[in-house]
Design brief:
Shape: globular
Low-confidence stretches: none
Radius of gyration: 20 Å
Number of strands: 12
Bound molecules: adenosine monophosphate, magnesium ion
Order of helices and strands: EEEHEHEHEEEHHEEHHEHEHHH
CATH class of the largest domain: Alpha Beta
Structural class: alpha/beta
CATH superfamily of the largest domain: ATPase, nucleotide binding domain
Length: 344
């Protein structure tokens, strides 16, 4: 089977093509850039995606050396995400499905991140730390579903780093803001205490951001603030991930999402994993940040294990939660079911 995956839930537009044996045939992406000093403007981002989606799909087919008619299944991100952005991929997917007379399947964004992670790392059953511009969640599989063990109570980690970077006057012209903050943090080991807010299994980043911006106004050097902010928020994430690992008695940790590119975060998680005798892995950046491949692959797993969406599933759901998805492809007989679907 050949599966096309379309992702447009936030600032990135992704088009992926995979085969059912897990070969990645294309993984293309275009990123909307907000006006300087501003965060993602959903309306503008959706206009960017609408303008680029047909060209990007065409490029993906060219790269994969395939024709649209070769596609067997079209997958798109149903949610969660920003409504106007999500609708771009959903509309394109519905149109293509009607034109090509090929089935359509809506995919949960988080499940996409997890499944591409499992496929690439060969991890069987990891605790997943998902850290991005729009999300911060600690997720693990129990009893037929992925469940959120902890999450941010306010702003996402990536947003916290991005706002700090913007207020500190850093430019994200040449690299994502989180990367620019990371490079600045590497310039010093000096550390000032900032509020460390873990509530049970949940995290809060807005207080620490406010405190950091207050220090910035007082004239505390930006490298000291970048370092202190990173050390504090990454320690918070590591603490909650560690607790999820202990509670679930799992033995693998996967980190994904845009912030997962951060070396210091990976270092802390790796050290914690080693202390528990657990395996740790990140993902190559093109598969850790939002992408169409993860949607295509997850759409395939759903389809191959018998999921057939109703017409209501063809529409987006901004608040689609990871635990709303029945994970049909991980039962003990999942491989047999997938193999059977291949034959039919
Ligand atoms: P995503 O929402 O998954 O596309 O990820 C985007 C987020 O990842 C933004 O907040 C970026 O600033 C952040 N990011 C990218 N690279 C890094 C890095 N090296 N360290 C920390 N954050 C990063
Ligand atoms: Mg994402």
């Amino acid at each position: 089977m050949i599966i096309l995956g379309l992702e447009s839930s936030a600032d990135k537009l992704g088009v992926g093509i995979v085969s059912s044996d897990g070969e990645i045939l294309a993984n293309l992406r275009k990123t909307y850039k907000p006006p300087r000093g501003s965060g993602v403007l959903p309306r503008e981002a959706s206009e960017h995606h609408a303008k680029n989606i047909s060209g990007l799909i065409k490029d993906a087919f060219e790269l994969a050396e395939l024709q649209p008619k070769d596609v067997d299944l079209i997958a798109f991100t149903r949610g969660c995400g920003m409504g106007p952005c999500l609708r771009v991929a959903a509309v394109a997917a519905r149109t293509l499905s009607a034109q090509l007379n090929k089935p359509l399947i809506g995919v949960n964004h988080q499940v996409g991140h997890i499944e591409i992670g499992r496929m690439i790392t060969n991890f069987e059953d990891p605790v997943v730390l998902y850290v991005s511009g729009g999300n911060t969640q600690i997720i693990a599989y129990t009893e037929g579903r992925y469940r959120v063990f902890g999450e941010t109570l306010d702003i996402p980690i990536g947003n916290c780093l991005d706002v700090f970077g913007r207020e500190a006057g850093l430019s994200d012209k040449d690299a994502p803001m989180g990367r620019v903050v990371e490079l600045l943090a590497e310039k010093t080991n000096e550390y000032i205490p900032l509020p460390y807010v873990v509530k049970g299994m949940d995290l809060s980043f807005s207080g620490i951001l406010t405190a950091t911006l207050k220090e910035l106004k007082k004239g505390t050097p930006t490298d000291v603030l970048a370092n202190s902010l990173q050390e504090t928020v990454f320690a918070m994430l590591t603490e909650v991930t560690e607790r999820a690992l202990s509670h679930t008695r799992k033995s693998e940790i996967l980190v994904t999402g845009g912030v997962a590119a951060n070396s210091r975060l990976k270092e802390m998680l790796n050290q914690m994993a080693t202390e528990h005798g657990a395996s740790f892995s990140g993902l190559p950046a093109p598969l850790a940040i939002d992408n169409g491949v993860m949607i295509a692959w997850t759409g395939y797993l759903m389809w191959a294990t018998g999921q057939r969406p109703g017409s209501e599933d063809y529409f987006v759901d901004q608040h689609f939660r990871v635990e709303d998805v029945e994970v049909t492809w991980r039962s003990s007989s999942d491989n047999a079911r997938i193999a059977k679907a291949e034959l039919s």
